[in-house]
Design a protein that fits this description.
about 120 residues; mainly alpha; two-stranded antiparallel ribbon; about 40% helix; globular; X8 domain-containing protein; X8_dom_prot
């Protein structure tokens, strides 16, 4: 049997470690590559939004991710949504080499990227 003091220390250590920033799982987001062309980004957004693969309301006027109103920002948001909601698999990440992973949360203001 473990002495009570050691048992208390172990329990507190286990509880405390979940509150350390370095101990938490880090996110991974799928966003559009800086090298993607406008035509490629339009094809991605058309496929994702035009076929109902993701909820595109957040990138429409008045939505939390509409601003900044630019193609690159909108495409990154919906590409990440598709990746996250489809199991974070390789298949959900393939956008004809127009995608990259980032490990810093791209969320801003009221626009929250899922992870």
């Amino acid at each position: 049997m473990w002495p009570p003091l050691i048992l208390i220390f172990l329990i507190l250590s286990i509880v405390s470690i979940n509150h350390l920033p370095l101990a938490r799982a880090r996110g991974q987001w799928c966003v559009v590559s800086p090298s993607a062309t406008d035509a490629q980004m339009l094809a991605n957004i058309d496929w994702l939004c035009g076929h109902g693969h993701v909820d595109c309301i957040p990138i429409k006027p008045g939505g939390p991710c509409f601003e900044p109103d630019n193609l690159r920002s909108h495409v990154s948001f919906v590409m990440n949504q598709y990746y996250q909601y489809n199991g974070k698999t390789e298949k959900a990440y393939y956008f004809s080499n127009t995608d990259i992973f980032v490990f810093k949360d791209p969320s801003y203001g009221d626009c929250e990227y899922d992870y």
